[in-house]
Amino acid sequence: MSESVIGTSATRLDIHTKVQGRRKYPQDFNMDGQLYAVVVWAEHPHAIVKHIDTSAAEASPGVVRVITYKDVPVNEYGINIKDQPVLVAEGDKVRWMGDRIAIVVAESQRAAEQARKLVKVDYEPLPVVTDPREAMKPDAPRVHEERGESNVLHHIKIRKGDVEVGFAEADVVMDGYFTTPAVEHIYMQPEAGIGYIDEEGRVTVIAAAQWAHDDLQQIAHLLNLPEDQVREIVPTIGGAFGGREDMYIQHLLALAAYVVRRPVKMVWTREESIQRSGKRHPFYMKYKVGAKRDGTLTAMEIEIITDAGAYASTSIPVLSNAATFAAGPYKVPNAKVDAYTVYTNNAVTMAMRGFGATQPPVGYESMMDRLAEALGMDPVELRMKNLLEEGDVALTGNVMRGGVAGLKETLRQAALAAGWRNVKGQWIKPDLGQASAPYRRRGIGVAVAYKNVGYSLGFDDKTTCRVELSLAPNGDILRALLMIGASDVGEGVWTALAQIAAETLKIDVSKVRLAFLDTAKVPDAGSSSASRHVFVSGNAVMRACQEALAKRDAILRAETGETKVVAQATYHGREARATTPFDPQTGLCEPHCAYGYATQIALVEVDTETGEVEVLKMWSAHDVGKAINPEMVIGQIGGGVHMGVGYALTEYFIQQGGRAQTRHMSEYYIPTVRDMPRELVPIIVEVPDPWGPYGAKGLGEMTTLPTAPAILNAIHDATGVWIDSLPATPERVWRALQRKR
């Protein structure tokens, strides 16, 4: 191979079979003699389960078994804290409407659904708490009495410098309060799968997952089995966005197969998926920011309260991420952050694209525009003055190293593309032209954001890859098989890893194959999250391929005639930069091993008579270090902006009294093609990360982070009103306009 594979838009490995409809998703799998399972759901968001009567359901025609807590060997699980029951026991309590009472297993789907209605549960309803700010009060109803004296699940504090001194030095001090809602992942493929006992007696699950090997550990625990007696197979995944990090169906299928010893299939309805699955965290954020007259930031004081919902899920890591990015990508010498995540009886909240770095930009980027307006500065100028650079000390006391120049470069390239002019070092905003109608106002808004690549705060982020080379007699590589447990949730990670392998082995990418994700056959690659696979798994692939080449060369020198070479390598994120946990008193730490940087600029028109917002154009600049596959980068930018537009303007999951009011897909407003920007300008910035494979950084989540704040800032530029709560619906914008008048 003479030309580089890296930087070319190689065809995705799965594209042909997907568009031809030949790839199988979890709901497409069937087995001889399979049974069908449905869940008996909680009927109250908070109640003691007094008694469960399954007799009528068990007597219903076609029913094979009604599984209850009595059938669960170890009735607890959780991705971080084991605070969730698999099935709620008599004497215990339901804590949200997604809790499960029983699993009905029957010979047909219809029989299972009919029998589900016959399970009788005697409840003692309890007071419900749904606002995390209220839940923090001493007299609030307790969600988890066993977990201390408060509903506060976790509190993080960061203390850098002296905020009182910082505010005393400021010429301008601004305050703001911002809220973001619960958001549904709305992946195309609802929860589905099949559980069975394989030919070696292992409890096996076929389902969509973002980290199959972690599911394996949780399932083994709740079934009280050794991990080698459990197996998970991940076929094609119909979207995830963080929503498949937690188990919502895998453990139920495993339990059902374990109990009845026959294949058991379960497919949730879209209504079950929407009402009974986890959401993005609502945030309540209070900001106080000070700056000198020349725009230099002097201090930030920030309070963040997040709604964890009924169980911990990933709320503590999400909060940790939010705390580290609370002040944005800026030099802030004095800072005070208090961040809380709180149990309520709302839907469990969990990982979703951005993982705690999506909500804070709504706060810190709105505050930057407010400061710019108060100081009479251009918003690009103010940001350029304060953005982090090589050697600067970030919020948690860590020194920024390696590739941070990409941060300012994204802003520079986006601003120039959007029409800003840099005249003698001063940035000047473009002329936006006339709006399309007298009652419409045109505005432009900018937002910058950054996020970690890989796991953080002392967690050992590692990936193992095994490579098998098939050789011709002369040593030429005929085929390379990568065995790595990385879930491709639609972002194209398999293709990117194949390109890294091809580049390292100096072969055409068509000669690279990836083994099917089966925990019995491939090593652990960690989660498809944290925008980490290209960086962490890419390094593991590169190392394994390098080791395989060295073994091949040794075989050729020895003339042994061997035709296969197997090599394995593990890469740890700490090899880039060792991370450390928060200091409990100051919060100072080395939080992340790598970073990705982004700037987006939105041009909007606001209808002042209706409050409707139309995004005319979006410039989206992202520092990817090195674009492994440029077309996939552009695709990620488009998908991320789509999700960000929904977050900004239309999407919110409504709950009242702990009960879902958003019950159907038709009641959840994701943007259509008509809601997307008329023009999207993707800008690929390449400032190599010294530790990334071929310089590459992560991208997936960064494409959503700046979208909503850029649109909010554009709305203000157009109308003069600040929108402090997402989404900026027509009603919310119209009411803000009326108040201004």
Protein model, in words:
With 741 residues, the chain is of the alpha+beta class. It has 3 domains: 26-126 and 186-276, Aldehyde Oxidoreductase, domain 3; 283-455 and 582-740, Aldehyde Oxidoreductase, domain 4 (2-Layer Sandwich); 460-575, Aldehyde Oxidoreductase, domain 4 (2-Layer Sandwich), CATH 3.30.365. Helices cover 25% and strands 25% of the residues. The chain contains 17 helices and 28 strands. The strands form 7 sheets. It has an 8-stranded mixed β-sheet, sandwiched between helices. Helix 6 links the parallel strand 10 (203-207) and strand 11 (230-234). Helix 10 (360-375) packs parallel to helix 16 (707-719), helix 13 (493-505) packs parallel to helix 14 (533-558) and helix 15 crosses helix 16. The protein is globular, with a radius of gyration of 26 Å.
At a glance:
This protein has 17 helices and 28 strands. By secondary structure, the chain is of the alpha+beta class. The longest helix is centred in the C-terminal third of the chain and has 26 residues.
Main attributes?
741 residues, alpha+beta, Aldehyde Oxidoreductase, domain 3, Aldehyde Oxidoreductase, domain 4, 3 domains, eight-stranded mixed β-sheet, five-stranded mixed β-sheet, 28 strands, 25% helix, 25% strand, globular
